[in-house]
Amino acid sequence: MRRWLCFILMFGLPVWAAPSMRACIDHYPPFQIISDDGITGESLVALNLLAKLIGHELVIKTSPNFARCLRMLEVGQVDVVAGLILKPKRQAYASFLPYREDSHYLFISRDPDIDIEHYEQLADYTIAVSRHTHYFDRFDQDPDLRKMVVNDLKTAIVMLAKRRFDLLIVPEMTLPSIRRDFAQFNSLFKVHPYRFKPQRIIYFGFSRKHQLAIEPDMLSTTVEAAYEDGLFIKKIEEFTSEHLEWY
Fold first, then answer.
1. What is the mean pLDDT of the segment spanning 207-216?
2. Longest CA pairwise span in the chain (Å)
3. Where are the domains of the chain?
4. Pick the CATH number of 105-196 from 3.40.190.10, 3.20.20.140, 3.40.50.720, 3.40.462.10
5. How big is the CA angle at 69 (ends 29 and 137), to the nearest 5 degrees?
6. Would you place residue 81 in the very low, low, confident or very high pLDDT band (cuts 50, 70, 90)?
7. Is 224 exposed, middle or buried (CB count within 10 Å of its CB: 0-12, 13-18, 19+)?
8. Which of 102, 104, 124 is nearest to 113 (CA)?
9. What's residue 1's pLDDT?
10. 3-state helix, strand, coil in the chain (%, to 5)
11. What phi and psi values does residue 197 have, to the nearest 5 degrees?
């Protein structure tokens, strides 16, 4: 399998022979970055490698938010979405194949007097969460937490600045890009010491209505072999080292 993967990576397939692999991307730095200069990010480099491994041409469809990407995946308007957490409800419309481990999650507030050092303290505050986003099981399933659903991270930061809620949960890897986008971040917001790292994998989600020109067994074997060989994380680490401005 490794020799076969190396052959694809070195020589690929002729462009004229490559069917399309449609993927949805929303703006969620550093995982997915949509700007006037184009589209990039960790998810994109993983998707580019995926397309190369299975002999497809990557076609990106942009979306204003993650929830819309999931809907496009469900109805078959795209073949794949990167950056998913495996949940039973999603398995009704998608199959899942791994490519990297999850990151830490942390909390940000506008009020400097709030101090979150332990999970139990979260129950005292209203917390903004992104629509259709899973964080970690205890947090997602906790009936004692007061949550406010927002469409995207950028909107959430603006709302936090206006004190529309008390706390915002974000992946730790997004923090540098948030600081870059909001010049007054350090004077307006407080990053709390409590962090949580789920022991779980991040997946590609493939629509059960996908139009990929590859047999399911071959798709699974190819992606799982690349994950086990560390090919996806290697590409992500290369992106990280070449784009420190997002970290």
1. 97
2. 60
3. 2-102+200-246, 105-196
4. 3.40.190.10
5. 75
6. very high
7. middle
8. 124
9. 52
10. 40, 30, 30
11. -120, 110
Give the confidence band of 76 by pLDDT, cuts at 50, 70, 90. very high
Q: Please state the rounded mean pLDDT for residues 124-137.
A: 91
Is the bond preceding residue 193 a cis peptide, omega within 30 degrees? no
| Nearby residues of 100 by Cβ (< 8 Å), 6 or more positions away | 42, 46, 201, 202, 227, 232, 233, 236
Residue 138 to residue 122: CA distance in whole angstroms: 12
For residue 148, give the H/E element and its range. strand 146-150
Under the banding of pLDDT at 50, 70 and 90, the label for residue 8 is: very low
The reply to whether domains 2-102+200-246 and 105-196 share a CATH topology is yes
Residues 6+ apart with CB under 8 A from 116: 107, 109, 122, 167, 192, 193, 194
**What class, spelled out in words, does domain 2-102+200-246 have in CATH?**
alpha beta
